[in-house]
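Repro case for the chain-ordering regression, as requested:
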Amino acid sequence: GEDVEQSLFLSVREGDSSVINCTYTDSSSTYLYWYKQEPGAGLQLLTYIFSNMDMKQDQRLTVLLNKKDKHLSLRIADTQTGDSAIYFCAESLRDNYGQNFVFGPGTRLSVLP
Amino acid sequence: DAGVTQSPTHLIKTRGQQVTLRCSPKSGHDTVSWYQQALGQGPQFIFQYYEEEERQRGNFPDRFSGHQFPNYSSELNVNALLLGDSALYLCASSPAGRGFPYEQYFGPGTRLTVT
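-- result from build under test --
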């Protein structure tokens, strides 16, 4: 079955790095995503990684994928107070009928000044 | 370029009533997906529309139905509302065509409260 798990809370100090972890179960996932949700808002696409990649870097964001362990992580360098939000990991499953996304429960990141 | 828009922003309904939520996809996108996000949880996939047809469906009862119009906009209808239907309903669009919609953009959501 499809299941995405994340730790629910993470607290870091401003300027430190944040690492948010995610595990998924479906080995047929083609893309894995990170979304950010601020209070009262929809989901903002941060980055995604194709399942045949190990790493993707995009400015302050680094995504690492360990396909063997089905483990995905998002590292935010030089974390700022504006990074405080809920971060969702999602896997994308494709079949003959199209594609859908399975989201984790979200990790609430709190950045302390 | 307008992103994904949804209306209304907030809605309060009574148990047993019916509700219609609306979504306009991002310009150039032709596939619309709907998600339900209960408080404190991740979004749950309801269904996806492409070429005015429901292409995929998650584990939601038939009370949840939808429609896509020729201009790619979409509606989500929920009949016989239950208290448990209270949630943030998110619409997402992607430029699928018949390819792989690997980028999905979300609207701000409609907050539905059922009393």
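Ordering looks correct now. The radius of gyration of chain B is 13 Å.
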